[in-house]
Amino acid sequence: MKYILIITLFFISFNAKSEQIINIDSVFKEGILIYKNAKASWVGNEILIKLLELNKETANLGGYLSYPKDDNTHFIFYNKEQEVVAETHFDSTFKANKDNISFKKRKFNNIEARYYNIKQSLAKYQQHDTIIKYYENTGMNFVPIEFMGKTKCYILSAPQFLGQVIYGNDYVVEFTDDLEVKSVKDIHQSIIPIAYAKDSLNNKSYHTHTEEVGFLPTPSDIAITFLYGELAQWTEHFIYSTELTTRLIISTKKMEISKTKKLEDARREAAEAQEKNKK
Predict the structure, then answer these.
(1) What is the Cα–Cα distance from 209 to 245, expressed in whole angstroms?
(2) Secondary structure (3-state) at 173
């Protein structure tokens, strides 16, 4: 599958945040990378944990990792001795293929060792953290990535029950070359749960960004939308700011950015569309 970014050409007089526009392409690519790693972890868990349970090999599990490898996304389970005990890989369809599954025990390769150490460093930091918030009926997905020469881990809130997609309460942790935590940023500075129902005709959704969050979608916005959009049976998700409107199209994994209409008009149109779909 191709991941597509479309930018409608326009002229906007930006203030000091104009540098955001330069980064649209990298924001999209980073969001896709987070999505693919998170999706591989989701699907890989579902497939391999059942097989490991059948073989009674779950007692010594230490965790799991996903990372890009060639044109695919690789997924592993590892044990408490830091050995890979199960692995598979996915193309862009994320369809299971039994020929891609291996239960051959082996040592970590270099990238697996690095991603494992990222998670260990973050776990150590969390012992005295005062920034990351936890909400009832939500969990946290930890998604380590290497992107444009930087080592990061995204922390995404996840609903523990069906019926909600959660934007916000998301964080990006940056690491030094020695994999020490360098900074932790609260991306949305709020939590934005959006309810959905599978039998609903309402197949579009939206949320808004304040100037503090920025005009552009965040990489976590892109990842969350593509990760949960199909489950929610959405066709599109919109992100409105005072300057830019982002349209994320679920089925094609496409992002379109254009100049925002007057914000209140955009909100009213979205609300009217939702009411129309309910009828």
Answers:
(1) 10
(2) strand
Cβ contacts of residue 153 below 8 Å, gap of 6+?
118, 119, 122, 142, 143, 144, 145, 172, 173, 175
* Residue whose tokens read 């890009």: 68
Q: How do 72-79 and 191-195 pair as beta strands?
A: unpaired
Calpha distance 36→184 (Å, rounded): 22
By the 8 A CB rule, do 160 and 138 touch? yes
Q: Is residue 13 scored above 90 in pLDDT? A: no
State whether residue 183 is helix, strand or coil: strand
- Judge contact between 157 and 169, C-beta under 8 A: yes
List the domains of the chain with CATH numbers.
22-108 (no CATH), 109-195 (no CATH), 197-279 (3.40.50)
Neighbours of 32 (CB within 10 A): 19
Strand order in the sheet with 72-79: 61-69, 72-79, 83-90, 106-107
Produce one character per residue of 205-242: b if its CB has 16 or more CB atoms within 10 Å, e if not: bbbebeeebbbbbbbbbbbbbbbbbeebebebbbbbbe
Residue type, 139: G
**Residues in Cβ contact with 80 at an 8 Å cutoff, skipping those fewer than 6 apart:** 60, 61, 62
Q: Kindly report, residue by residue over 229-258, the tens digit of the pLDDT.
A: 999 999 999 999 988 899 999 999 999 998
Largest CA distance in the chain: 62
